[in-house]
Design a protein that fits this description.
heterodimer, A: alpha+beta, ten-stranded mixed beta sheet, six-stranded mixed beta sheet, 40 helices, elongated, B: mainly beta, eight-stranded antiparallel beta sheet, five-stranded antiparallel beta sheet, about 5% helix
Chain lengths: ~1000, ~475
């Protein structure tokens, strides 16, 4: 018999029991038409070592009553049958049916719990104060195969397990940790929380009920954990259920979208929705291409459904948002980066495992970058700038391209090829030199527009700034910038007024350099970190070659900018980088020379500064250079902010960022230097355009500023509050005003590019019927419609043929004697030492002389030198024509067509090999000369091209004797009249050169291709 | 530690570079040459072609002043010239000549084409020349340089439309561009009443290409003592001369020729001047601007005696005459400098009368180290005087040489000139075909006067531009 004493429990033990008393757990098994595994499920529950576990089976309208099966295995279990087949609704019955339980274990009817599963879950929940805990799910068919160890979602609400397909369990994920959600297949949840959340959202089934529940739990501050020591095998029979019971893909997509619409804050939605929609559209498109219209439709219908039902969703969303205690950013670390949908898509569509991994990783990286980046306001500003960069150029595509500056008319591919392969350069006064490969580059741009030159030109301008930003972003990556900072660097590059001014003033060559230079710099710097090999410098070499083809000095500047980086690398003891730059740059230069061969030879032999692009007078106004005040766009004195902001990293950065900021400044200083110093030292000598130097200054400043912003975001918090923070705030704030200028300019649609003389004087194009002619343009190089052929009396001059010129006039040939004579004639006129300029220029085919003082009608005036204006007005044979203000147009009353015949007996007046060509021209009145045409009279033929012995003429089958007319041009004597023709006979040499050049390109292209293949093979 | 060193170094380098750049950039590197106000100059270097326009004159008995062109070749080698005579509604007539080295040729325009109002244009190829023209009529001969600097503005100060005087404005357009000009006059009567006249028919007035137009000023403005003229081109450039014909009805007879200046200036110099019993001189000051001009007239006597500078107020768009006999002692020889004391700019012309003859000459607003005086003398009985004045503040040395067609060079005078001093050289030797060259080691101002029993003409020298 037990004594009284013995009947009383031991107080100490009682206290211990109370302290470790197992909280009551009710296992809520939701079943619907359970399969054979259901018995195993029940047995596993029965086998649990947890002391206080009650089982409640909730049947969701199964066709067969499960009570008998349950009673057979778990006689103490409770069974309730529901009339709905919805998981959520059924599970929510627990709210009514269960009382007194601390935890609910929500289970599917196809999970087999390890005997210790409930205990492990409860112990960890108590220990970690977790409101929801989930087990490690493994495949019931193959228990070594992992199914879930805690779940995450991507930003678009797509679940993500983080596991590779068929990944084996090697305890590699066996760490207790927080997770975004756990599957409803087996989920331990605190009963009071379940009640507070009103259980599952019935509308979230299928596909999102567990995500929704856990998300809402998170928002009220609950902790969710995965407990890998609790192992649950899952049959996943929902995947193999009969069609009426199988999950509806469209419903799943719809519900997931619904969940994010409900749970995200408004700010997060503003970021996530556009990207999610874009991804959805892309995926839908891919399904459509793959002839899976149902899936494609399901994706789009999910968006459409939610759009239509958003009103219904509002109350639920309002409730969640009003009761939330946690900001989205507090659990963003639990949301996976990238798109789980793309990953899933790849998983299902790209079979090769290796590829999947590569694709998966890459896409994850890209999307992670994007989604991470868009969450930062600064990145939004950068993205907006890039969008504005296209918005601001819309009129180029939807309207006409104004032929401002050197944005002259582009020729067709055929015409460009003809110009390229011709042995005679028809620019200036003509010359027998190799044509620039730039002709083919312009032709290549037309390939994407199927040969429509105007459209290609429009696209070129439309994409110029965005492409430049892209290139700068790539370059910034080489400067150690994170992706979003690279984005900022790109945006800063286009926000600087220089780029807009280049477009507004029509600086074709500079625009090309503006776009290409960041790409090529990035390419060289990237290659500089690798071991040197010839194939490795092909790509940077091609870049250098392209820049040199467009603007030879541009390539030299590029090299010099890299040398600046080289020296700073030496200064900062980065010998590896400096050596790499030296090797890569040298190799690239060799590749570029080979690519351009034989074009550079013409320059080496001629030594013509104009042909190299040195036509500008420098600026001795450093202040305006520092403000990038080079055109209609700018921010006045606030423009200094662009430089000041770039000082930020030198003030606040540390470590690698500081080093790279110094390198960026080296490029900027180089750019400012070459823009300023030549003009300061020799203000009247021709130099490369200041904009060319400023391009590199902008590159350097953009990189430095972006690095500064990165430091501002990352490093500044490590300093105590002081001048650094104030300086950072001021400089970043000051950037807003140039940014505002950029926004205002964007509304113009053409970056303020206006019609130019090429449009206003287009009537010149129709004057050819009276014979071929040239137009001599004189004025500041910025106002000329073609690249300057030279400088005279402090300004520039160029020639166009038969009108306002075209793209082939943008690359002057090395000056010939006739070019120099023309230049001298203009100089003498300005000095008052020539009063018959018209007659003097007549042998050169010059019919019009245009002095351009503005870029176009209404543009700011850049007055031609007074002496020149007066000198031209004093000419006795130049008739001034009525034109708009800004251009002074004269017609040469003594002009002779480019191809003319001087009838007998006047033909004897043509001076031959005159020692003083200008004197001879001025004294020779050939008023009877007429255009060469069929039925021309007998006489002397004149061809106003620079004299070259390879010109030939024939008439009536006879070759005519060539003479050096006026000591400058070609003449052919004793033409019997009738049909006469003239041709250049040196074409075969050029054909050979073109063949060699094309051959070299093929070889280099093949080498580049081979290298690409090797790199690909090496992964 | 390393970071802060790097930061300091980088900031220092940037600050130093920008500082140096800004400091150096403030230097004024621009410079430019002022455009000469004179209508004819000798350019430096060898011109390929040069055009001289001789607007006034006629080449037929219908015209008032028979014209002879005098061309001097300033180089040692031969120069080809084409003299083109444009006659209204006729094809131009061109005649070619070769002027031997340093030679001077005289070409009567009537030998090329005969017309009442011909426009003679001389085009020279291959060397520097100076071209003057002689006009004879009404028992008088005047000489003046032709124009080789076409202008878009022209000014005259000393015209008159009183009874017995016909004043003509000759506008020559030797270019291919039709000229359109506006003409306005600043007049003052003997009481000093000022009036600006802008005849409607002379506004937007056309001068067709390759032609000249003779404007009878006396028919377009009131009869008045003083008439200053301003011609402004809307389009084109031109050469302008002013011809006055004194018919003798009022005691004055002969012709006076002035060549226009192209801009107003703040300082004008006349190197030569004398007031004697039969010779009177006056200075006429026109102020075409919108601001009254505070003018100081200084007289530099050869005797070095000091004459108190005269202060004058010339009203805006007005014209004022100063009789030098009221200022300088009798028989004094002098130079004159007229300068503006405020921001206005003026045009100054001198009128000299001796007996019944009248001569006019515009002042010289700029000095030069080289001057050419053409031998466009009427005949060997004429006395030609070359006056050199030093307007600067330091001593100058000058020389006067005569260059003849056989390339002989005769040094006539070599002297030093104190600041404000002048020297006269009488050219009583040498042929009529030799031109005179004055060179100095600094800027001087030169004019020449030719006098004979029946004529007087004053001719500013032709400066050389360096």
């Amino acid at each position: 018999m037990e004594t009284l004493e013995n009947s009383w429990p031991d107080l100490a033990a009682l206290e211990e029991d109370r302290q470790f008393a197992a909280p009551p757990v009710v296992a809520v098994v939701v079943t619907h038409n359970p399969g054979p595994a259901f018995d195993e499920v029940l047995r596993s529950l029965d086998a649990q070592d947890y002391p206080d576990l009650t089982v409640l089976v909730l049947d969701a309208a199964s066709e067969e009553d499960p009570r008998l099966r349950v009673a057979e295995i778990l006689p103490k279990a409770f069974v309730r049958r529901e009339s709905t087949a919805s998981f959520g609704t059924t599970a929510n019955e627990a709210l009514k049916s269960v009382a007194g339980a601390t935890y609910l274990l929500i289970c599917h009817d196809d999970v087999i719990l390890a005997p210790n599963a409930v205990r492990e879950l409860v112990e960890e929940a108590v220990r970690s104060n977790a409101a929801i805990a989930g087990p490690k799910l493994v495949s019931a068919q193959n228990p070594r195969e992992l199914l879930e160890v805690g779940m995450s979602i991507d930003r678009f609400g797509i679940p993500f397990s983080g596991l590779e397909p068929n990944e084996l369990d090697q305890e590699q994920h066996d760490g207790v940790r927080d997770t975004f959600f756990v599957s409803s297949a087996a989920m331990l949840i605190r009963a009071d929380l379940f009640a507070e959340l009103s259980g599952f959202d019935p509308e979230a089934f299928p596909g999102s009920e567990d995500i929704d529940l856990c998300w809402r739990a998170r928002l009220v501050g609950a902790r969710i954990m995965v407990v890998p020591d609790a192992v649950v095998q899952h049959y996943e029979i929902s995947q193999s259920r009969r069609v009426p019971d199988s999950p509806d893909a469209a419903a799943i997509t719809r519900n997931r979208l619904r969940t994010i619409l409900k749970c995200y804050s408004s700010a997060s939605l503003a970021v996530v929705l556009p990207i999610g929609f874009a991804l959805g559209c892309m995926e839908s498109l891919v399904y459509l291409v793959k002839r899976q219209p149902q899936k494609s439709r399901a994706l789009l219908s999910a968006w459409w459904w939610n759009f239509r039902n958003f009103k219904k969703l509002k109350p639920a969303r309002r409730e969640i948002q009003t009761t939330r205690r946690v900001h989205d950013s507090d659990f963003r670390f639990l949301i996976t980066k990238g798109s789980a949908r793309i990953r899933a898509f790849l998983r299902s569509h790209v079979r090769a495992e290796e590829r999947l991994r590569v694709f998966s990783t890459a896409s994850q990286r890209v999307l992670s970058t994007t989604t991470n980046a868009v969450s930062r306001p600064i990145t939004w500003v950068a993205v907006s700038a890039l969008v504005l960069a296209m918005f601001g150029a819309r009129e180029f595509v939807f309207g006409d391209v104004p032929h401002v500056g050197t944005l002259t008319r582009w020729l067709s591919i055929g015409s460009l090829w003809e110009s390229f392969s011709s042995a005679w350069r028809y620019t200036g006064m003509g010359s027998a030199t190799a044509a620039p490969p730039a002709f083919l580059l312009v032709a290549a741009l037309q390939v994407v527009t199927f040969g429509y030159p105007a459209l290609a030109q429009a696209l070129f301008l439309f994409l110029a700034l965005p492409l430049a930003a892209w290139g700068t972003g790539r370059l910034a990556r080489q400067f150690g910038a994170e992706p979003q900072i690279a984005l900022v660097a790109g945006a800063l590059y286009v926000v600087n007024p220089l780029g807009r001014n280049l477009v507004a003033t029509g600086r074709f060559a500079e625009i090309c350099i503006y776009v290409l230079a960041p790409f090529v710099l990035a390419s060289v710097l990237r290659q500089a970190r690798d071991d040197f090999s010839w194939p490795s410098v092909i790509v940077p070499g091609i870049g250098v070659g392209v820049i040199a083809a467009v603007q030879p000095i541009g390539a030299l500047y590029l090299a010099a900018a890299l040398i600046a980086v080289f020296f700073t690398a030496r200064f900062t003891n980065d010998k590896f980088l400096s050596r790499g730059i030296a090797r890569t740059l040298s190799g690239s230069a060799v590749v570029a020379l080979v690519l351009l061969f034989p074009w550079p030879i013409a320059f080496v032999l001629a030594g013509d500064r104009a042909a190299l692009g040195m036509n500008s007078i420098g600026s001795n106004d450093l202040a305006s250079l520092l403000r990038f005040d080079t055109g209609p766009s700018g921010a006045g004195w606030i423009g200094y902010a662009l430089v000041l902001a770039a000082l930020l990293p030198l003030l606040i950065s540390t470590g690698d960022r500081l080093v790279w900021a110094i390198r960026a400044w080296a490029i900027a200083l180089f750019g400012f230097g070459v823009a300023y110093i030549p003009g300061m030292l020799a203000p009247r000598s021709p130099w490369p355009s200041i904009e060319l130097g400023l391009i590199f200054a902008v590159i350097g400043l953009s990189l430095a500023t972006a690095i500064g912003i990165a430091s501002f975001v990352a490093d500044l918090r490590t300093f105590v509050f002081g001048w650094r923070q104030i300086a950072a705030a001021i400089t970043v704030g000051a950037l807003a005003i140039p940014g505002l200028g950029f926004v205002v300019d964007a509304f113009d649609g053409q970056w303020r590019a206006r019609s130019a003389w090429a449009d206003s004087l287009a009537f010149l194009d129709s004057q050819r019927v009276q014979g071929e002619f040239r137009v001599l343009w004189i004025g500041n190089e910025k106002n000329l419609p073609a690249a300057p052929n030279g400088r005279v009396v402090g300004t520039n001059w160029t020639l166009t043929r038969n009108g306002v010129g075209n793209v082939t006039d943008l690359w002057p040939a090395p000056a010939q004697r006739a070019d120099l004579a023309l230049e001298q004639a203009v100089r003498l006129s300005a000095e008052g030492n020539l009063s018959d300029l018209g007659r003097t220029l007549a042998p050169l085919g010059v019919r019009y002389v245009a002095v351009v003082e503005t870029l176009g009608p209404g543009s700011p005036r850049s007055a031609a030198p007074q002496g020149l204006r007066v000198g031209l007005e004093r000419q006795s044979d130049l008739a001034r024509l009525f034109t708009e203000p800004g251009v002074i147009l004269y017609e040469n009353t003594d002009w002779i067509p480019v191809r003319a015949v001087v009838p007998d007996p006047d033909s004897r007046k043509v001076p031959v090999a005159a020692p003083d060509p200008l004197q001879a021209s001025a004294q020779t009145d050939l008023e009877n000369a007429q255009p060469l045409s069929n039925g021309a009279p007998a006489g002397t033929l004149l061809l106003a091209e620079s004299y070259n012995k390879d010109w030939r003429a024939s008439a009536k089958g006879d070759s005519l004797r060539q003479l050096n007319a006026f000591g400058l041009t070609n003449g052919f004597v004793a033409s019997p009249g009738g049909n006469a023709s003239m041709r250049f006979s040196g074409q075969w040499v050029r054909n050979l050169a073109v063949l060699i050049q094309l051959g070299l390109w093929v070889l280099i292209g093949a080498a580049a291709w081979k290298r690409r293949k090797i790199r690909k093979a090496q992964g | 530690m390393r970071d802060s060193r790097l930061q300091r170094s980088a900031l220092l380098v940037i600050a130093a570079l920008f500082g140096i750049g800004l400091f150096v950039g403030t230097r004024d590197v621009a410079s430019g040459n002022a455009v000469s106000a004179l209508p004819s100059v000798v350019n430096p270097g060898t011109p390929v072609s040069e055009m001289w326009v001789c607007g006034a004159g006629s080449s037929s008995s219908d015209g008032p002043a028979d014209e002879t062109i005098v061309v001097s070749n300033l180089s040692k080698r031969d120069v080809r010239i084409d003299v083109t005579v444009y006659v209204t509604e006729q094809e131009p007539v061109v005649r070619g000549f070769v002027i031997r080295g340093n030679a001077t040729e005289r070409i009567r325009v009537s030998d090329i084409a005969q017309a009442a109002d011909p426009l003679a244009v001389v085009r020279a190829y291959g060397g520097p020349v100076v071209v003057e023209h002689e006009l004879s009529g009404f028992d008088d001969v005047v000489v003046g340089p032709c124009t080789n600097k076409l202008v878009d503005r022209a000014y005259f100060a000393a015209g008159t439309t009183v009874r017995g005087v016909q004043q003509f404005l000759i506008l020559a357009n030797p270019t291919a561009t039709d000229l359109k000009v506006d003409v306005q006059f600043f007049t003052a009567d003997s009481t000093g009443t000022q009036k600006m006249e802008r005849p409607e028919n002379l506004q937007g007035f056309d001068v067709p290409r390759y032609s000249k137009v003779v404007v009878p000023v006396h028919n377009n403005v009131r009869r008045t003592e003083l008439v200053g003229t301003q011609v402004t081109a809307r389009v084109g450039r031109f050469a302008a001369e002013q011809l006055e014909i004194f018919d003798g009805s009022e005691g004055r007879q002969g012709i006076a020729l002035s060549n226009a200046v192209s801009r107003t200036a703040t300082e004008w110099v006349f190197p030569s001047g004398i007031v004697t019993g039969d010779r009177a001189e006056s200075v006429v000051i026109a102020n075409p601007g919108d601001e009254n001009a505070a003018v100081e007239l200084g007289v530099f006597l050869d005797s070095r005696n000091v004459v108190e500078p005269q202060e004058l107020d010339v009203p805006a768009q007005g014209v004022v005459q100063v009789n030098l006999a009221d200022i300088v002692p009798a028989d004094a020889v002098y130079a004159i400098r007229v300068s503006v004391q405020n921001n206005a700019a003026i045009v100054v012309e001198r009128r000299v009368s001796r007996g019944g003859n009248v001569a006019t000459s515009l002042g010289i607003p700029e000095g030069s180290a080289r001057w050419i005086v053409s031998p466009a003398r009427v005949n060997s009985s004429v006395t030609q005087t070359v006056s050199v004045f030093n307007p600067g503040s330091s001593e100058r040395e000058f020389s006067v040489v005569q260059r003849d067609r056989d390339n002989t060079v005769t040094l006539i005078k070599k002297k030093k000139l104190q600041p404000g001093a002048r020297q006269e050289t009488i050219i009583d030797e040498g042929s009529l075909e030799a031109y005179i060259e004055i060179t100095a080691d600094g800027e001087v101002v030169v004019d020449t006067m030719q006098t004979s029993a029946s004529a007087i003409t004053i001719d500013g020298g032709i400066p050389g531009i360096e």
